[in-house]
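# nightly structure sweep
# worker-07 picked up a monomer target from the shared queue
# config: single-sequence mode, recycle default, output format = structure tokens
# input follows
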Amino acid sequence: MQQASKFSSLLQLFVLALSFFIFQPFANASEEENFNVGEMIMHHIKDAHEWHITGPEHGGTSLYLPIILHDNGFKIFSSKHFYHGKEVAVKANDSTTYHYMEGVGPAKGYALYHEEIYKLDNIGTSNGQPVYVLKFHGEHPRNASPTDLSITKNVASLLFGSLLILVIMLSVASFYRKNGAVAPKGLAKFLEPIIIMVRDDIAKANIDQHKYHKYVPYLLTIFFFIWINNMLGLIPIIPGGANLTGNITITLFLAFCTLLVTVFSGNKNYWGHIFWMPGIPVPMKIFMIPIELIGILTKPFALMIRLFANITAGHIIVLALISIIFINKNIAWAGLSVPMALFISVLEILVAFLQGFLFAMLSALFIGAAVEEAHH
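# output follows
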């Protein structure tokens, strides 16, 4: 009974913290204007140049990330300078909207609009201060964009996740290096069954038994990268997290890596079945060649979309369920939306592991088909 009571208290604390962190930045705005569900969801899942923790979107507690621009040389400054300038929108005669900016410090001459950085136009001075302009045609800026090499939230999360994987794996490797083939302890005891699962149930089960060894390191890397970053990505429902594996650029890169490994591992039998399929008439061979070539690209494309869609959809569903309370402006809806959101959040823990497993397994399946020898 004591354990059940303790679990219930922890659950209540989690729900309260979840609701506070998600919607505290929007609480003041929702009192004055209609609650914008789409804006709130995009705020939590999109990339950003600051790591927002709590409080209002601009002016709360945030970690401001470095801005690195290449525009006639490199310019480096904090993203904090983008959020402390004055802005006045003025309609011009040529249907262009001019946003007059008073830049601050090193950011003078640049503006951040919907997380895109634009170069401002200097149109003169006012009271001895330069006046910078962001020009709009309709809702889209017309200004030039410098080359943006900034450390965004997703980039920072990528670096942190990669460092975490290195620390975990090096510590496990160090344990076996010091103790040899002994019963594992601590972190090694937890990870050894997972590593063996990837080796036996993913690599060995889908790749030729004489060739699978050299692909185990790659499969382990993508599995743990996706799994650990998926787990870190469960925090995007709180402002302090990043949606790394829900970023299609990351899933595209992972799928491209699998494509490269598959293509460069392909043997004579693999390419023969693509360019000159045995056992079918010549006219059909000519017809099938472009289809087989397209198939080489559609396989990694499916990997990319599956990971991106599943991770992003989970975050959107949780946020949309909690939004029901604010849409209806009635706390009684929490009795329905919060338990459902909590259920989806717990389900996301399983999905985080499952997506890493599926990505690694399908990669092994594609590699296995590329290295398979001909059967006579």
